[in-house]
Amino acid sequence: MAVTAFSTPEPLDPDALRSAPVRYPHPSRLATPLKVDGPKATAAAQTLGLHTVGDLLEHLPRDRREARAVGELVSGETATVVVEVRSIASRSVRRRGMRPLVEATVGDETGVMKATFFNQPWLVQRYPPGSRLVLHGKYEARNRFRVQGHARTAEAVAGAEAVAHYRATEGLSSTQILALVREHADALGDVAEPLPAALRASEALPDRSGALSASHFPQRDSDVHTARLRLAFDELLLAQLVLLRRRRRRHESARAPVLDGARELSARWLADQLPFALTGDQERALEVIDADIAEVRPMQRLLMGEVGSGKTVVALYALLRAVEHGYQGAFMAPTETLAEQHFATIQALMPGEAVPAGLLTGSTPGRRRSDLLGKLGSGELSLIVGTHALIEDPVRFARLGVAVVDEQHRFGVRQRAALDAKGPEGLTPHVLHMTATPIPRTLALAGYGDLDFTMLRELPRGRQPIETFVCSTERERERAYDRIREELRAGRQAFVVCPLVSESEVVQARAATAEYERLRSGEFSDFGVVLLHGQMASGVKQSAMASFASGEADVLVATSVIEVGIDVPNATVMLVEDADHYGISQLHQLRGRIGRGEHRSLCLLFGPKESARLRALAGYSDGFKLAEIDLELRGEGELVGTRQHGLAQFRVAELPRDAELLERARRHAERIVAEDPGLDRPEHALLADALLDAYGAEALAPIRA
Ligand code: ADP
Ligand code: MG
User: Which atom of ligand 1 is nearest to the CA of 349?
Assistant: First the structure.
């Protein structure tokens, strides 16, 4: 194979190769503290996390901005230029206490101007005529350029040159960072290569040192792209290694009860008690769960399915499997309200109390609480529904076999460990995680790569489609209220969701209260209207929900607290105010509150017609499809679901743009963890170092062979 220059297919000429310097990387030199001139800049460097030379070299340009040609600058414009110094001198300033001003005549092929530097007399020596500089500043009247940032550049003096822009802060400008990087460019040779040579060759990736160098100082356009891919690959590979090693560690070292007996109680429940037939997706989910819990290694499965897709049925099945093997089952929800709802659903799905179940939340009274705790400890109670408080210290289970964790994104690694510790004598419970937020595959892989996935895409039969409209004008608003009143007169019920006016719950609550008052005495004065928001006392909340659930109230005015929970099949309309303030996934979740019964449903989104998000909701009902659109519209960093889910945020990699790269990194990570789980082989030593650097010692905890 011919040796080529970075990011080009052109072979290098043999003389250039022979004269190339031999590199002897000293990675330890990268730990040298970074020295920056002046206390202000030093503090700024600390703020940016630039403590060592290595940190500096890993501080990659955020983008590259076209440098402007001097001849094209217009007065008042802030710009970056690449120029040559023609002459330079300092000029004293009249005012006392001011250091002299440095004035330079600088120019490129298109023009010449006067650049002024303030408070830095030493620049006269540092930038003699002929110096090439990149300057950032403001072009002002009389052909003056007030310099805000400056650095020497090796880049040719030309009009339209791209200049690297770094994340900067007060006290340390992007241009100064560029100068520092230049100063320490030699240290790029000290960067170690974490990837095994065979992997690099098979993926045709350039070396890491070269990629860092190319992203700071590209020689040609293709360099930036090639370098980015290489650095993104490293990031994705390390993230996948962490996830896959965590999963492996669990598989290797944790043992769960083997639940492989025939279905008995669960079979009777499915056949005699469940009032409907399972969907195909539910059947398949039951089968994979059966296979999971029949193994000695603990189940770690994520059940993804939209609101109403029937996850609770699947979860209850898993819990009953534990019970019929003589173990206990626990169902955990992130909030009290949700725990209460799950408890109600479970009771409805399991009439006649075939299995005694309890509800334990923060508001369970003391007497009842200690009774429940006692029965859990003795094993008398088989099923418990509660908040995440169930994994807290005082709760002891006699024989916890299966745990269901709803809305897994609020459940971190530490909580998982606490849950694991709740199993009987040396055994870890099987865990089924559930989420109603549909996540595109790439994000699921990036964030939950240590879990197995099952999706419920198919909605239970008999679900009525929801018609969704975007309403923008006053006339449409009038018509919307007419339609709602029509539905209410026909005996249906409606949700009114108030705008997401601010992050503050108090402000939200106030807005919802005002809208409630307005509607109660206005548009819906003939109907029963109730209010629900997060600031209400738990008892008041409950009675509002109860009166809506029983059909006593016709309209529920709420903040987005109804996003999850509440199952009222008779509710057929949802009106969302300022809908464009909500994200796609939130709106989709909200909409899932209707269309649950036998009647056709209607969703009215108030907001601008041109909103791409609102258009997507009007056009699609499949949550996975909407999640993909959301990802495309906003990118991973901005995706609300992403942040809620605590999915990995990358520095270089971008999803979904790098989805294919992620798949490649995943495949290599799988192979590496299968072949060398401890990363003990010599060719993986530097990879292990990189993992340690990026994720800390926890990521390298040993895996028992
Ligand atoms: P999720 O937890 O995914 O939001 P649930 O399990 O709460 O969904 O189910 C939503 C509603 O649909 C419940 O009223 C439930 O009884 C009902 N349901 C679930 N599975 C089916 C099915 N296969 N056929 C008909 N109705 C179903
Ligand atoms: Mg549910």
Answer: 16
